[in-house]
Amino acid sequence: MNVTLGKASSGEECRVISVRAKLYACLLSVTMVAPAMALDLPDPLTLDDFIRFEPAQVQLGQLLFYDKILSGNQNIACATCHHHDFNGADGVSLGIGEGGVGLGMHRSGGTGADRILERVPRNAPALWNLGHRDVRFMFLDGRVEVSDDFGNGFRTPAWIFLPKGLNSALAAQVLFPMASETEMAGQPGENLIAGAAYEGAHYVWPLIAERVRNVDAYVPMFIDAFDNVNEASDITIVEIANAIAAFEGTEYRNFDSPFDKYLEGDETALNDAQKRGMELFYGKVGCSNCHAGPMLSNQSFQALALPPFGPGRTLLNDPIARDVGRMAVSDVPEDAYRFRVPFLRNVALTAPYGHDGAMPTLEAMVRHHLKPRESNVEWRAEMAILPPVPWLASSDFALCDNVAENDRVRSRVDIDLPSVTDAEIADIVAFLNALTGETALQRPMGRPDTVPSGLPVD
């Protein structure tokens, strides 16, 4: 059958052209916005997502956080390695713990009999947003975990000996640096706390509590902050840890970054490079496979083949001074060299990066994720940010020079990301910088000038 189509009138032609133009414009619009619409972005954070701590406990916690009375030789505080000057960290790859003097790269290894025997074996994690209600693991190997296994709310190295009544995983974590010889306790023979630490962390905590309650100025503060404290003898390590957790969880709560504003609906909050980086992060590159959820971490454990150095965290009867990460906690061989996926808000403020601080910049860390084994091989000792300690110079990089151990590290890589261009790497870094809060550098309390013990404040 032959069909003859008549010529359309000029009015009909205009209508056809108009419809085609609208259809083209619609398709163009969909094409332009589709990548952003397809991204699985987290919900915005709100105050309700965080534990709300009592103001009196927060104020007390600030003083305890900066008070060296909690350390064996009374020469280091929690704040020494998590200082306001370094945005809740210490600015170095591996810190100098008990026995050192100063802060950051200017911290020395001490002198004489007090000088340090080794560096702290892992990078000091930052404190940002650890008061979030969904935080399940603390420490880079997750050795403090929310759990009901032992009737005290947590699975920790103290097992059943962890006291009840801790208000958060953050409070449970607070307890263990106090019992670490390298971090705060000191060496056996130097003080009672160091001797107790050799027997077990739970022997340390009553000694620290006794010290604190013997400082007269602290007692009324504890009575004001805790309903169950009516006199000095009521002060225990639980109240001390809960107060410090209250301070950390409040002081380092921050979610007013450009990315947070974007999640709240302000599409102008991110510039073009940051938006491209966000699309790569949540799309093509797949960073969000691990850095997922509102805290930008699924709290899993991943092996990245970061170059090993420093003293390691040696397992009992292990002939090699190394750090096997999560395996030391789980006893599962597949967990060898795995470490907890970090939270990323304010990540640009807390260099260096990795469980041992091997990567000095965000760009270096991004590039390592893209080619972990190649990055491990190309890494150089100069990339580590280490305060000079001359008597440790010969051993600082012995682990990295151990060919067999480094081969084992490189054999355990859990991620496989696609290749990207230098421009795309720059965009990802731009997005990571967009995670920095506008008020991140303006903490509400900061460093106190003095503490009740009268000890000097770093």
UniProtKB/TrEMBL annotation:
Coiled coil: none annotated. GO terms for cellular component: cell envelope. Keywords: Heme, Iron, Metal-binding, Oxidoreductase, Peroxidase. Pfam families: CCP_MauG (PF03150). It is found in: Cell envelope. SUPFAM superfamilies: Cytochrome c. GO terms for molecular function: cytochrome-c peroxidase activity; electron transfer activity; heme binding; metal ion binding. InterPro entries: Cyt_c-like_dom, Cyt_c-like_dom_sf, Cytochrome_c_Peroxidase/MauG, Di-haem_cyt_c_peroxidsae. The keyword Heme applies. Residues 56-223, 272-436 form the Cytochrome c domain. This is Cytochrome c peroxidase.
